[in-house]
């Protein structure tokens, strides 16, 4: 969506300390969400270019992975196999542990630590 379009044009360089704080916050928040069986959350990113500051938080975390979501996952996987589609991205509805891992990987990839860049002061949502 909009986030990926933004980072393609404006890489998100952060200080090494900001990256460490973000990684810890995302790890803790996604661990909690996984424990309560929640998936399909998103990252809210606010960019203040005047202050050279990023503010992030996890939002949209109200969807639990219930039997109907599990059935939707299996149904979509079966349809993809029957249609012989490439499933490189995987199903859109996935179990909380897989969603957590995919979310963490995206955060690690999309926020780049740099000791020489001053877009810092990431403020993570309360963990």
UniProtKB/TrEMBL annotation:
GO biological process terms held by the UniProt record: phosphatidylinositol phosphate biosynthetic process
GO cellular component: endosome membrane
Domain PIPK: 1-111
Coiled coil spans: none
UniProt keyword list: ATP-binding, Kinase, Nucleotide-binding, Transferase
MF term (GO), any: ATP binding
Pfam families in UniProt: PIP5K
Keyword tRNA processing: no
SUPFAM superfamilies in UniProt: SAICAR synthase-like
Domain of life according to the entry: Eukaryota
InterPro entries: PInositol-4-P-4/5-kinase_C_sf, PInositol-4-P-4/5-kinase_core
Record PANTHER family: 1-PHOSPHATIDYLINOSITOL 3-PHOSPHATE 5-KINASE-RELATED
Protein name: PIPK domain-containing protein
Organism of origin: Hanusia phi
